[in-house]
Write a structure and sequence with these properties.
This protein starts with a helix and ends in a 7-residue tail after the last strand. It has two helices and two strands; from the N terminus they run ααββ. α1 crosses α2.
Length: 69
């Protein structure tokens, strides 16, 4: 996500609080937010994929995804 896209998200949020948004602006805001969340989740997942737990004895274990029940 580019800086311009983040700036546009913030601009639309400010406008929504003051004067409101048109239908096309609401749609644009929803699309930008969805893209932002997708990018955030992907980045966070990559970070967790490279995370290790180091124990006191020096051993390192790769962090694994918790199993859902």
């Amino acid at each position: 996500m580019t800086k311009e896209q983040v700036a546009r998200i913030n601009e639309l949020a400010r406008k929504k609080k003051t004067v409101g948004l048109t239908e096309s602006e609401l749609k644009e805001q929803a699309e930008l937010r969805a893209q932002y969340l997708k990018d955030f989740r992907e980045g966070f997942r990559r970070q967790l994929d490279n995370t290790y737990i180091q124990y006191e004895d020096g051993t390192r274990v790769k962090l694994e995804q918790k199993k859902r029940q």
